[in-house]
Amino acid sequence: MRWQRWNRKAKLWLWVITLIGVVAAMPLGLSRMAMEKSSNTIEYVFDHRDIVEVAELRPNPKSFLNEKVDLLKESGITTMALYESSLKELMQAGRLTYYNEKDAALLQGKLPDERVNYTYVLFNGRVEEEKIGPLLREAYGRMEVPVRNWSFDGRPGLIIEESLTAAVLKTFDFDPMTIEELTDKGFHILPRFSDRVVPYDSERTAAQLERLKSYGITRVLFDGEKAKGVSDQSALHSLDSFGELLKQYDIGLIAIENLKKPQQGINKLAYLTNYNVTRLYSLSPEDSIEMTQEGIADRFLLAAKDRNIRMFFLNTMNQGSADTGLLNHSVDKLATAMSGPNGVIAQLDEAGYPSGIAQAFTYEKPSWEKPVRGIVALGAIAIITLLISAFIPHISILVFILGLIGSAGLFVLNSSLMEQALALGAAVSGPTLALIWVMNRIYSRTIGERRMVGGEEWTVGNPANEPEERTQWVFPSVSIGRRIGIALNWFIVATCISLTAVPLVFGLLNNITYSLVLEQFRGVSVLHLGPIALIALYILLYEGNEGRGVIKRATKLLRQPILVSWIIIAAVVGAIGFYYLSRTGNSGQVSWIELIIRNWLESTFGVRPRFKEFMLGHPPLLLGLFLAIRYRAAWVLIIVGAIGQLTMVSTFTHIHTPLYISIVRTLLGLGAGLIIGAIFIAAWIVLEGAWRKWLAPMIRKYSA
To answer: What is the pTM of this model?
Structure first.
């Protein structure tokens, strides 16, 4: 039929469109690599509140605090993080002391007034009253809580006309005395804003940012689940106002790595500030105590190199031990880990990440990018169409047209969702088409009946590259050397087909939002299971028939009786699949053996190839291709080998990883996988020879 001929010819043009999309994505990749090189300075931040809380439980809190702050400065810490203050934090810092009604009466030698329940504040001196008093009056006045002056024993104070429980919940401005003390010591200040100061006041916030800017503030970090301004956005457009103020004062944002969910409002503020954002990794208090210094250095180096982290946030805590009777902390340990010739700072500096104030990546969106990404999108639609037509022939043209219409409609509704959908479709299509191509090559060489001719195994069928009308050819099994050559050739071609998806993925997702993980590639589980399931389906239903008789074969398969062995196999496959999926994503778990191998690879090559790729993927595929020419059951290894092909593509879906790192990682994985696969093949040849020469004759002799 004419329609069928058109669709057969359309497949060639679909591959041409796919390759044009691949070529178009290359300048986008170069643009991204230039962006990733635009910032390499690392900023080391310590949580000042943590040190204050540790010092509070020491015999001499003030001297302990000063000593440890100086130690951290000497170790190379450049920045201190400060929170908006509260009564509790101001008392911990030694600015004031507060009392409830009963304690204040006891302090004055009076009986408590049963008619009221007020909060009483005494400043530690006149300087504290001058600098901290306005913070309290402003905060309580904003909440319409009456405040009046009070004094005791020559010390100035305030009476706050609400209960102590309510008074300590109020959030004040940043402690100006602490800011001055730390800047005098040479620290950069990182303010941690919250969204607890409501209602939002744009004039107050502008004055606050202007004051902080005078101290050299370059970025803000948010405390809690919300960015400042989120709560009043609907009523006051506070998020828009805060974003404009940040842009006005040239103050950037910080995105925290590995949060369960992003802080609310961070994406909008990032957009309003032209993506003046730096990514931060936080070392938890527990890790700061339990991890070794070498472990901390390795983790920081990996984060800077592999995940574009440019700020490291260090925490500490009090940890009591009943066994030793000591109250431990990690300040000294962290100072030692950071400093010295083998410390974190020296190692990162040697790797090309000098210490300083973190800068945002230089992000530009040239005018040519949008039409080029449109061409990449066409390439993605084409490769997805090729995958669908591999299972449902003769509808290539229709699917491509529907893909164009659907993508255009989705672009109008949500362009980001369209890009992610096409990226996922292309990522699944590349490895699947590669293995379908492999299976078709195998079918062309092995389809038919095996028989012995003159003591040699021959195959009856239609050999490769022979005319279709000559249907009963007899040809000998291929020699070992030839089988190795064919397997290697098929592996290389399949890898090239899989890798066509890579430029389409990073071309579609070429946006600063993905590099900053404000948006992420969606469908990780689909990518890790899709190609495996599709190639298994192709083998079961489409073996050598190009889509003919699929329904008949599926019906026959469904009518097969369920055997106990099938149930056992399904349980084993399910367990393996669950373990495989548990390893995907950032939260995947790995074994201790794999951790040892990972660390060795990292220290040896500088870039760690993916374990699933060079151990679980490429070697089984290469061995399967070698065996498939002779043994039909080798398709099992080919399905397993799909892991390596899809993992190569999956590597490039981690857009926050520098592109050149992903390229090197993939090449190392291919090299290591080929070496291990060659070892597997050599081992099989030896074992097969031993079986044929000694074991098989021995079994036949004793069975007879």
So the answer is: 0.84
